[in-house]
Design goal:
CATH class of the largest domain in chain A: Alpha Beta
CATH topology of the largest domain in chain A: Dna Topoisomerase Vi A Subunit, Chain: A, domain 2
Oligomer: homodimer
Structural class of chain A: alpha/beta
Order of helices and strands of chain A: HHHEEEHEHEHEH
CATH architecture of the largest domain in chain A: 3-Layer(aba) Sandwich
Helix content of chain A: 40-55%
Number of helices of chain A: 7
Largest sheet of chain A: 4 strands, parallel
Strand order of the largest sheet of chain A: 4-3-5-6
Number of domains of chain A: 2
Number of strands of chain A: 6
Radius of gyration of chain A: 21 Å
Strand content of chain A: 5-15%
């Protein structure tokens, strides 16, 4: 059935959904009440229409400026650079950071043809004015993340702003025994006197 | 953000999608091109409109009668009863069955308030005419599946039709060591001389 295959294909395109899950979801959707499906579609459309990127930091927002950038309680002297808005949600949940963010929207990834020019560096450098004292690089500790961090740190240091990088090491609850070499080596490098 | 929460909630309602996956999918959808999202929505609507249940067996189809029921090459003297259309797809992939199917659409599940009256037994009994020689019960080997099988077998036997049940036991590639007691006991019960 063409229309069944189509709907399965569409769900299989979503991130983290394999063929079997896509089929399960497709059957679920086919069994929905018409009204329920219309509601689902309306919510998709509405979210897509209302949500845009913050003009300052690139975070998702329903306004021109996001909640974090417009919050005067937050420390605007410190900016944490993340790959995308999901990372902001993760940090916000931890409730340990009160500065601002900057969403890079991507990282340098030569294998997938993403170079320096594909990152919106201008938007970032415009923010690196007198008020900013520290920039925290919070990109994934992968080869691409490291490359991007190195590149950005050079640009930021030129502005005489402190650059830091979030610690990487063995996650809480993790095992030394099952940690990979790179993580162990990072955990040693980043050791702290107690 | 209300509209972001809404879209995450919607995806989290789909089967097999947890909160984290729902968030990942929501962000993916927000990053889609407008055209891409419209296409996605069109495919959902189209599938929902076109796909209905076969008038004979209850399988999903774009026509009044499904491909299997209308295939004259298939053996109409044998009917395999399954819970839903997905099970038909699984059996058809195995290419080992050439009879017809009957989709029950549910199984007896008193804990969830599904009783005998909620199953469309009439549709099934109407098919149990002179031509049918055997009915295979292919419901999941769970308490609910077993109860339903027992109930159906009584009705079918009254019509003097052979009733069989698919074998349950240790799956191909499975381990005896890690099999649960019920499976092991089933595998012994169902042993065959070789």
């Amino acid at each position: 059935m063409k229309s069944l295959d189509n709907i399965i294909d569409e769900f299989a395109k979503l991130p983290g959904i394999g063929r079997k899950s896509a089929m399960r979801i497709a059957f679920h959707v086919l069994e929905m009440e018409d009204e329920e499906l219309l509601n689902f579609i309306t919510i998709l459309k509405e979210a897509k229409e209302k949500i845009k990127k913050c003009e300052i930091c690139g975070n998702l927002t329903e306004n021109d400026i996001c909640e974090i950038c417009s919050d005067e309680e937050r420390d605007s002297s410190i900016i944490c650079i993340v790959k995308d808005s999901r990372d902001i949600i993760a940090f916000e949940k931890s409730k340990t950071y009160n500065g601002l963010y900057h969403v890079l929207g991507g990282i340098i990834d030569p294998l997938n043809g993403i170079g320096v020019d594909d990152l919106d560096i201008d938007k970032l450098t415009k923010r690196l004015t007198g008020n900013v004292k520290e920039v925290i690089l919070a990109l994934d500790p992968s080869l691409e993340g490291e490359t991007t961090s190195l590149y950005l740190s050079k640009i930021i240091k030129e502005k005489e702003i402190i650059v830091s990088r979030i610690a990487s090491g063995i996650p809480m609850g993790g095992n030394i025994e099952f940690s990979d070499i790179a993580t162990l080596s990072r955990s040693l490098e980043g050791r702290k006197e107690i």
